[in-house]
């Protein structure tokens, strides 16, 4: 196997190669660090590369294998991973995409990162995020913009844009990210990856609170459905004091990717109010996937056109109030965040609580809309990926309107807490990937993963690689 092929192997396959002795953790880590050195200056996918720490960790793991200590190795022993720069990794900067915080060193790992280490991963570095995770593109001032490896003129999405760009370009084996309004699904859509927003309560936000009142979740980005499922197995679980939580499934999420989902009732739509119809390329991806699902034996039908109008205002109020809670000085914020902070400061506590209450009412309506179906099929975004800097010169209010339009299919399921997965489904005319979104019933990741794996097996995607990544 040549080095390019090795870099693009699924994380689960790399784990097998390590445990069989065909490749060492050190060699694999050095391969990714070499690729990062070559490609990251063009992609802006990593804020921080933890080369010294990664090499030391990989050497220790390689020596353990050489000594024959192979008993009870964790599943991902020696596999390199990236961590989004909204999560703390001990000894590494955690900037949240704020230029003035670039040298702020974390003193300890987040519990989520502890779980990732316990699973055997080697952490390569911290990936780029939009400032405070606010935007569906990744262009924080003071950092190079993250670029899409399929076409450098276009965004890899956001706020987990660096994670997606790194994984799509072969700069890590698998990526951790988070999603408060499409921040995993959007980057997966833009970069041709599997991105899963888990159900509310599936993955802990310890030790901090989840600042978006239950809207956000940490989750996996993978090259395959099985990789995403296996990383979800690592991430999921209760941490003492969590405000809400779900029990882990039996068997595991990974096991469910090997099971037939059975015949499912699947509803699809390509337009929603008040936005209207999706771009023809995004519509076609949904229609093509509906045909594939029908061919697989599922009952597929077009739903009525949903109306998410009542979601926009309360979602925006809660989202912008995070900026006030973060207590970042106004001068450290980029232009649109600064404008949103001004709006948040004019929102009193009563208005915030009314927004939270309205979100909960709308969430019930969303779940009721989904209830007749096992799975919903819909666009991830209303249009293909936008260009880097495309909205830079627009007024802040116009940028907000554009964001609401572009990512409209994602926030409803942050509000409802349902699991939602982005799956690759083709390319747009600019050579940039597009995908489709599968949404499950509350807490039903297992059904979602079984169906996504079935689709993936019938129409594989992993053979696609961006030209820039063929070193």
Can you summarize the main beta sheet?
11 strands, mixed
Relative strand content: 5-15%
What is the CATH topology assignment?
A: Amidase signature (AS) enzymes
- Cα-based radius of gyration, to the nearest Å: 21 Å
Could you name the CATH homologous superfamily? Amidase signature (AS) domain
Unreliable stretches: none
Percent helix among the residues? 25-40%
In short:
The chain has 471 residues and is an alpha/beta fold.
Could you explain how this protein is built, in words?
- The mean pLDDT is about 95.
- Helix 11 packs across helix 13 (about 350-370) and helix 12 (about 335-345) crosses helix 14 (about 395-405).
- The strands form 2 sheets. The protein has an 11-stranded mixed β-sheet, sandwiched between helices.
- About 40% of the residues lie in helices and about 15% in strands.
- By secondary structure, the chain is of the alpha/beta class.
- It has a single domain, classed as Amidase signature (AS) domain (Amidase signature (AS) enzymes, Alpha-Beta Complex), CATH 3.90.1300.
- The longest helix is centred in the C-terminal third of the chain and has 22 residues, at about 350-370.
- The two termini are about 15 Å apart.
């Amino acid at each position: 196997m040549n080095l390019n092929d090795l870099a693009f192997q699924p994380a689960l396959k790399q784990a097998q190669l390590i445990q069989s002795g065909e490749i060492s953790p050190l060699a694999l880590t050095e391969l990714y660090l070499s690729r990062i050195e070559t490609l990251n200056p063009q992609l802006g996918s990593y804020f921080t590369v933890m080369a010294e720490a990664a090499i030391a960790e990989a050497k220790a793991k390689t020596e353990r294998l050489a000594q024959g200590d192979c008993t009870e190795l964790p599943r991902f022993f020696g596999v390199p991973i990236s961590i989004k720069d909204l999560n703390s990794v001990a000894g590494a900067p955690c900037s949240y995409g704020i230029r003035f915080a670039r040298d702020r060193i974390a003193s300890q790992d987040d519990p989520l990162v502890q779980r990732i280490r316990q699973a055997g991963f080697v952490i390569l570095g911290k990936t780029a995020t939009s400032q405070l995770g606010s935007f569906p593109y990744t262009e924080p001032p003071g950092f190079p913009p993250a670029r899409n490896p399929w076409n450098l003129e276009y965004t890899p999405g956001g706020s987990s844009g660096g994670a997606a760009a790194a994984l799509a370009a072969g700069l890590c084996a698998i990526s951790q990210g988070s999603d408060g309004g499409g921040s995993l699904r959007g980057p997966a859509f833009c970069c041709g990856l599997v991105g899963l927003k888990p159900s509310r309560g599936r993955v802990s936000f310890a030790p901090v609170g989840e600042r978006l009142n239950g809207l956000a979740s940490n989750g996996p980005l993978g090259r395959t459905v099985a990789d995403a499922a296996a990383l979800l197995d690592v991430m999921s679980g209760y941490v003492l004091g969590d405000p809400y939580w779900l029990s882990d499934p039996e068997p595991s999420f990974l096991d469910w990717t090997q099971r037939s989902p059975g015949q499912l009732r699947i509803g699809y739509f390509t337009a929603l109010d008040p936005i209207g119809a999706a771009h023809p390329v995004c519509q076609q991806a949904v229609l093509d996937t509906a045909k594939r699902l029908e061919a697989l034996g599922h009952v597929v039908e077009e739903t009525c056109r949903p109306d998410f109008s009542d979601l926009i205002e309360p979602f925006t109020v809660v989202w912008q109030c995070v900026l006030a809670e973060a207590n970042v000085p106004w001068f450290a914020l980029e232009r649109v965040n600064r404008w949103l902070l001004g709006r948040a400061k004019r929102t009193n506590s009563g208005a915030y609580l009314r927004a939270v209450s309205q979100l909960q009412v709308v969430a019930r309506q969303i779940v009721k809309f989904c209830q007749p179906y096992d799975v919903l099929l819909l666009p991830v975004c209303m249009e293909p990926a936008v260009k880097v800097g495309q909205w830079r010169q627009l007024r802040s209010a116009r940028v907000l309107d554009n964001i609401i339009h572009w990512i409209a299919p994602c926030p409803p399921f942050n509000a409802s807490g349902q699991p939602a997965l982005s799956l690759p489904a083709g390319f747009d005319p600019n050579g940039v990937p597009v995908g489709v979104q599968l949404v499950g019933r509350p807490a039903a990741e297992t059904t979602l993963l079984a169906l996504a794996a079935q689709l993936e097996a019938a129409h594989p995607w992993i053979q696609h690689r961006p030209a820039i990544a063929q070193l």
